[in-house]
């Protein structure tokens, strides 16, 4: 069996030599553990933070440690009554072909209800992040004018659609390619979208959101956050979810500069971490599950085949090659 370990802490964009594929024995489950053969692995931006030893909300990987994170697999061996061989479970042990999670720490998932990959995305952590940020942190309400950055990604694509489903007057998204802009407008039904690589974000946002922004869902930070602050209406709310424009940066960004706007317009900028909102999962699943079933919430996935391509999938996700959730299928 194979597993993928952190070989070196990256400087800037991670590269193949920062990862190492190791050959190990198929593990034997200990007391209270089950043996799982992984089927789908998640690659997520927060893993870039874990690869670094800089202080972050997420604990750092040790060099030589397996890149742990969410994965879903089939139970092969179990000594607990609640889980039988052939069941599918999600666990947190990450990039390995076989895992031995504690039976009471896994979440059972049903492939009859949704494809396994969906539990890593729209019906999992990234979907809940969009929901918690848009509903609980930003307090989305009818008539709001909304801007979502990183809008074609796993979190952003769900966040923009939740805003529409909750009655926003106008939802604008930004993304990094013409094809993603087309996807946002034609398939997800956003009112306007732009490619942030086409020109300064502030100018493009002003054109796309002529009535300003009441709610900003930030996945990107940097110039996107600065532009959004400059466009925000009185009492605007920003849910600060991520700052991916800086995850590979080698020098700190400047800003925010527009303090007069934050103070004068009484803006509320609030960071949040999805794991604080895990108690919202049942409500989220009830609402989003129904939206997905009825086709009102669409989701894309970019699926990379082959365990050995997991680092490539991760690096491609950081470079924007995904639309919707990036997952690896084994
Ligand atoms: P995505 O599916 O959105 O994938 C990452 C995307 O980021 C890429 O597709 C790329 O799209 C975009 N990107 C990369 N570099 C830049 C850049 N320099 N400027 C602008 N966009 C860039 O990932 P997720 O949906 O999983 O995560 C989205 C954000 O949400 C991240 O910031 C992540 O850290 C955060 N997050 C936060 C959580 C929380 O609890 N607070 C939980 C989960 C995620 P493009 O082609 O558009 O550039």
TrEMBL record:
Key words, A-Z: Oxidoreductase
Enoyl reductase (ER) domain location: 12-328
Pfam families: ADH_N_2 (PF16884), ADH_zinc_N (PF00107)
CDD domains given in the database record: PGDH
InterPro entries in alphabetical order: ADH-like_C, ADH_N_2, ER, GroES-like_sf, MDR_fam, NAD(P)-bd_dom_sf
GO molecular function: oxidoreductase activity, acting on the CH-CH group of donors, NAD or NADP as acceptor
Superkingdom of origin: Bacteria
PANTHER family reported for this sequence: PROSTAGLANDIN REDUCTASE (PTHR43205), PROSTAGLANDIN REDUCTASE 1 (PTHR43205:SF7)
Protein name in the entry: NADP-dependent oxidoreductase
Origin species: Kibdelosporangium phytohabitans
């Amino acid at each position: 069996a194979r597993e993928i370990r952190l070989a070196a802490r990256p400087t800037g964009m991670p590269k193949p030599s920062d990862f190492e594929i190791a050959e190990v024995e198929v593990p034997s489950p200990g007391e209270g553990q089950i043996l799982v053969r992984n089927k789908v692995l998640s690659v997520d931006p927060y893993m870039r933070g874990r690869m670094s030893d800089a202080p972050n909300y997420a604990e750092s990987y040790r060099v030589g440690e397996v890149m742990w994170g969410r994965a879903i697999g089939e139970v092969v061996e179990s000594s607990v009554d609640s889980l039988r061989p052939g069941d599918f479970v999600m666990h947190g042990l990450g990039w390995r072909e076989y895992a031995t999670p504690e039976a009471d720490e896994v979440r059972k998932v049903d492939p009859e209800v949704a494809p396994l990959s969906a539990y890593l995305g729209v019906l999992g952590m990234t979907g809940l992040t969009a929901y918690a940020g848009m509903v609980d942190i930003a307090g989305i309400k009818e008539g709001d004018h909304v801007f979502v950055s990183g809008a074609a990604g796993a979190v952003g694509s769900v966040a923009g659609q939740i805003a529409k489903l909750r009655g926003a007057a106008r939802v604008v998204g930004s993304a990094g390619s013409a094809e993603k802009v087309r996807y946002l407008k034609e398939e997800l039904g956003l009112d306007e979208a732009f490619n942030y690589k086409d020109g300064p974000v502030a100018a493009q946002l002003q054109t796309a959101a002529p009535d300003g922004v009441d709610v900003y869902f930030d996945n990107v930070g940097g110039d996107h956050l600065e532009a959004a602050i400059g466009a925000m209406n009185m009492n605007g709310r920003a849910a600060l979810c991520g700052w991916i424009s800086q995850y590979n940066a080698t020098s700190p960004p400047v800003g925010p500069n527009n303090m007069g706007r934050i103070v004068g317009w009484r803006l509320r900028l609030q960071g949040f971490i999805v794991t604080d909102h895990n108690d919202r999962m049942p409500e989220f699943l009830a609402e989003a599950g129904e939206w997905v079933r009825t086709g009102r919430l669409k989701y894309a996935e970019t699926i990379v085949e082959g365990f050995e391509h997991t680092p490539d999938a991760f690096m491609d996700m950081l470079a924007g090659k995904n639309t919707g959730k990036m997952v690896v299928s084994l």
